[in-house]
Design brief:
Blueprint: E1 4-7, E2 10-12, E3 18-24, E4 33-39, E5 46-51, E6 57-59, E7 67-72, E8 77-82, E9 91-99, E10 102-103, E11 111-115
């Protein structure tokens, strides 16, 4: 079974930065669009950024200009560089592969991002 392992979360002050990583345990990585999702307490999980196998990116409006998604196809890893963090970015962040816009793999454990002074 393909595994997703997210890392890089933590506690950061408003305005700070974090870089999240997601390692995918299979060579199918190159076949998929990869996405970063987040789930805040009491809210549904939402998609925040996607990157195609060729590097084309797209972002949810609230993170445009602050978050950058990228991928290393040789290392089966996708990244999310987050800058100018706000309290509303506080959530558990997950990655997943996508087909037709829908996640296709079993979710990993996620990584907690807390933005607070």
């Amino acid at each position: 079974q393909v595994q997703l392992v997210e890392s890089g979360g933590g506690l950061v002050q408003p305005g700070g930065s974090l870089r999240l990583s997601c390692a995918v345990s299979a060579d199918i990585f190159n076949l998929y669009v990869m996405g970063w999702y987040r789930q805040a307490p009491g809210k549904q999980r939402e998609l925040v950024a996607v990157v195609s196998s060729g590097g084309t990116t797209n972002y949810e409006d609230s993170v445009k200009g602050r978050f950058t998604i990228s991928r290393d196809n040789a290392k089966n890893t996708v990244f999310l560089h987050m800058r100018s963090l706000k309290s509303e970015d506080t959530a558990v962040y997950y990655c997943n592969a996508q087909t037709l816009g829908l996640p296709v793999l079993a979710w990993g454990q996620g990584t907690q991002v807390t933005v607070s002074s």
